[in-house]
Design goal:
two-stranded parallel sheet; 55% helix; 2 domains; mainly alpha
Length: 126
């Protein structure tokens, strides 16, 4: 009985990556690291601007970029753990992340998971 079939595309990507010589792999790794760094710098700037904007209105804002695996459950756990460690009053999170809406879901997977596992109030905004 087959429950989950491997995606042919992922197999092809892995096979292709494994066939690349080590010099080209290093170039690709550096390129991906540079992209990740540029994205992180961009988010640091955006979060800094938002923090400044809302602190001017008297709202205390804590920002943190949490890096890790691309698993919505792990990301949600890290967000909830951070909120608990910081003793935040409420988690505010967007209803849809970078993955967008699934046809039959009204929430992004990270948002859904945060709302399911958090012991703190969660405000979901559009």
């Amino acid at each position: 009985m087959n429950i989950l079939q491997p995606l042919k595309l992922s197999e092809e990507v892995v096979q292709h990556f494994n066939s690349i010589d080590s010099e080209r792999k290093n170039v690709l790794r550096k390129y991906l690291k540079d992209i990740n760094s540029a994205m992180k710098d961009s988010w640091i700037k955006k979060l800094s601007d938002l923090k400044l904007k809302y602190e001017k209105t008297g709202i205390q804002v804590i920002t943190k970029i949490i890096e890790g695996t691309h698993s919505s459950r792990v990301i949600a756990y890290n967000i909830v753990k951070f909120a608990e460690d910081q003793k935040v009053d409420m988690i505010t999170i967007g209803c849809v992340g970078i993955g967008g809406f699934h046809e039959k879901k009204s929430l992004g997977s990270v948002t859904r998971n945060v709302s399911e596992i958090s012991t703190r109030p969660v405000l979901i905004v559009p």
